[in-house]
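User: Quick sanity check before I run a bigger batch. Here is a single chain. Can you write out its predicted 3D structure?
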Amino acid sequence: MRLPDPRRSRVVLIGASRYADPELPDLPAVEKTVTDLAGLLTEPAHGLVPDGHCTVLLDDGDLRTVGDRLRSAVAGAEDLLLVFYAGHGLVAGRRHGLYLALPDSRWEAPEFNSLEYDKLRDAVLDSPAETKVVVLDCCFSGRAVGDALGTGTGTGAGRIDQLAVAGTYVLTSAQRDQVALALPGEEHTAFSGRLIRLLREGIAGGPELLTVDDLYRGLRAVMAAEGLPTPLNRGVGTAGSIALGINRAFAGTAGPGLRDRQAAAVELGKAGDWAGAAERLRGIVDEQTRILGAEHADTLRGRQAHAHSLGGAGSPAAAAGLLRPLLADQLRLLGPDHEDTLRTRQFLAVNLGEAGHREEAVGMFRVLLADRGRVLGTDHPHTLRTRHLLARNLTFTGGRAEARALLRQVVAVRERVLGAEHPHTRRAREDLAGVSDVREVQ
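Assistant: Done. Predicted structure follows.
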């Protein structure tokens, strides 16, 4: 199971919401359906393709233009080709073939002014794409699964056999002789609205990536429960395993587990195995970024813990290199006074000092001390820790007198608040007695 390569994939969305023939009622929900589906499939974070690889043909009544743009798009697909149609499905001819209505189509003679499904099928089959998926949201769309693209039987079976291994897949909104629905009060068509909902919200308990088969099963269950026309599917080869999106509900299941693993890795570092913690956290951050998103609070905390562990493992320069962009993201997303932002500023100052940039570290600690005193109070443990760290770095820059003054303040407050024998109080007294001790506290 994999997501398609967005650079080598193409999406074509065809929709007809307005019709000239009075026998074909307008379908206002189709316009919203196509527009929203295009937005979902081209989302920078979760979409399938960039904007330039998504062709939208909405209410284009010229059959030649539709055909030319369709062929141009399908010819550019190498990995995934996804073709979607929403509108009126018409049946005509001796073979009772399926025709996809366009704005200028006529109910009585669709053969001469509609997109014949056989021609759409041929265009798709001619594409070099490894995986070809056709989704039809129209009346009588189930007729499409009985042809060569859907089953590999009949007159076109030989062509199916020559396709790439990934194969082809057809998903339809209705059975062979069923009508598709647009329900009153719903902004999308019944079938596509539920497809959009699955893509937007995901499938609870489902896998990390949603294949076209997963979406079919989800749609079938939802539509059957609501008494709506049940969709059909037909696939050849491994097309059913191609992912059409990230399961957004998966994050709700995976998030707590990732948090537990992160906490365990942090404890591993505190126990002394900073290198092991850093290695585990690197993998956890990769998963958090992929599943939760780069800007999720858990992902930001994972990045912070990973950088902190690298510093603990003896790589302060590498830690500082990760903390700088993290701080920029936290300032943008969380604000300057957020607890996590303040902690990252402290970690960055610590690692800069350890990497030999003591003057820069002292400058950062001075500003951080003022901000923590303002936000948390001068006697807060975090403020005291920042004051302690400022004093320790001052000992390397010729500021021993100032360092002693700061450490006296720290000792006095900690004795009063924590007690004379608290480990933090004893540490401050030790540093006051011998400021040449350069061990780090974080």
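Confidence is low (pLDDT under 50) at residues 145-166, 175-180, 436-441.

User: Great, the batch can go ahead then.
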